[in-house]
Amino acid sequence: MIERIGYRWSLRMLGILIIAISGSASMAYKRRISPVEGSNSALLLMLVRDARFLCVAAALLFINMGYFAPLLYVPTLAAAQSGNKGTASNIVLAFNAGTTAGRLLSGVISDAIGPSNANLVSNLLCGVLV
What we know:
This is Major facilitator superfamily (MFS) profile domain-containing protein. Keywords: Membrane, Transmembrane, Transmembrane helix. InterPro entries: MFS_trans_sf, Proton-linked_MCT. There is one protein chain. This protein has 6 helices and no strands. By secondary structure, the chain is an all-alpha fold. The protein has 2 domains: about 1-30; about 50-130, no CATH class. The longest helix has about 30 residues, at about 50-80.
């Protein structure tokens, strides 16, 4: 699509598509709990001072880096070093094929060791390997 209409219009069309899908999905949302009256800023400050909360926040940062950094930066690096956009496209294709195998395998593993343990192992591997 980029070759036909250009990069900017491809991003615009992708944005329109995401808005249309998200907008139609948001119409099906149902409020489960009522909103809280007023915010309690003392609670927020208490959470920031809690060491357990900060450890969870740091762990989530590394988990997200493990999931998204390879997908975003490796194709760019491959295109910069080889000068070939086809190489970057092939790397994205390999990542997507790997996630397909990983999704199927994670179901089998979670049946064997439990979903929480499978998620823990997956997050640990993503954080360590990247």
